[in-house]
Protein: Potassium transporter KefA
Organism: Butyricicoccus porcorum
Amino acid sequence: MNKSMIRYILGSVLKIEGTLLLLPCLTAVIYQESEGIYFLLTAALCVALGMAMTFRKPKTSIFYLKEGCIATSLSWIFLSLFGCLPFYISGEIPSFTNALFETISGFTTTGASILEDVEALSHCTLLWRSFTHWIGGMGVLVFLLAIIPLSGGSNINLMRAESPGPSVGKLVPKMRYTARLLYGIYIGLTVIEIVLLLAGHMPLFDSLCTAFGTAGTGGFGIKNDSLIGYSSYIQWVVTIFMVLFGVNFNAYYFLLFRQFKKALSMEEVRYYFLIIFTAVAVIAFNIHSMCAGAFDAISKAAFQVASIITTTGFSSANFDLWPQTSKTILVLLMFVGACAGSTGGGIKVSRFVILCKTVVKELSSYIHPKIIRKVKVDGKPVEHEVVRATNVYFITFMILFSFSVLALSFEGKDLVTNFTAVAATINNIGPGLELVGPTQNFMHFTVFSKYVLMFDMLAGRLELFPLLILLHPTVWKDMLSQRRPKKLDR
């Protein structure tokens, strides 16, 4: 195991986080807030530790998927542990567990909060809270790949371990340029949303925080009522951009280079929009009697469908009061999630497409045993390894989900609360139903339950296996071993 490279990556991540912490420091200067000193101290700590960890460069920068998963999992844990320090030491979130919960929720773009009065926080804290969504949306390691070259093809192992979806490939020959291209698209869409929000007379600070939350599909609001108090125009801008950030970024690459036919032929994206339009139509019809006309029903339905399927978690209405049919559809959308290769969470549309086609294939094999059929996506056969990985992912997801619901049940809360709390965290959504509904929060859970939910948030964002690999006994044996192998373990 290339432990020196893992150390180097962790140090680089800390230096990046220390640099990014300067943004809330600047915000504190602008608004003359004393809380900024805590962000500055944390930034200095991150940079100092990062420099110490990267002072000696590894002899070899080559590492394999196992190291990629370990480096990714530890990077997100380090990000969260250091990122929560300003919340805790400033006293704005006096409990370390709560501060860590809020920070993990931010970086994993979950948006589940323990705060009862968001508006009581300082501007610098609010900005950092929303900015963690933006950092975690595309992934800090993707940013790292964009600025630090790694040799031997090792960089794709980091990308695979961090990026959401069943598979990750290169858009251009060099992975470094792929990472830069992804961040270029990400920044471009974020800037466009900020401009459109400003055009709707939204204050600059509100626009920045809202755009950060939308781009990362996170959902931390800076108002106690989320986005309910903003105009219909602003809500529609956020709705549209939530949907756009849930699209596979490969589609934007094709559009950017005028490969329109390839963009339009992406089956996953077509199903993604079909699910959205169908869900909006059914929910709008179902809640029509509770709204001020058809347009209001469509607006509310579109916003909440976009928020849930992209796992953003913003709210424009208290959907916990909606009819059972609408709430059932929203819960189902929690599991579907956005497209692979987007900033959204959930199981992903592509996996459901593969699973459904696998079922159809198996049914056909029972009816016509001699016919050989392959699962195809975008007109191309899906490799057996991808189908197997999708099935294993789904099984692992359900096992982890079931154990998490069981763990929460010891508190004695109702099943709907526990079920949707786990669904909202493992799918990186934020709000659930009942005691964790859009007007509630996660403060009332015990410390044990909060750590279960924090694990679910990290596991969901990292696609389960990188975090599970980190917990494997063999990995820890290798990491703690002083043995220096002649060649790297694959």
User: Anything to note?
Assistant: The longest strand covers residues 376-377.
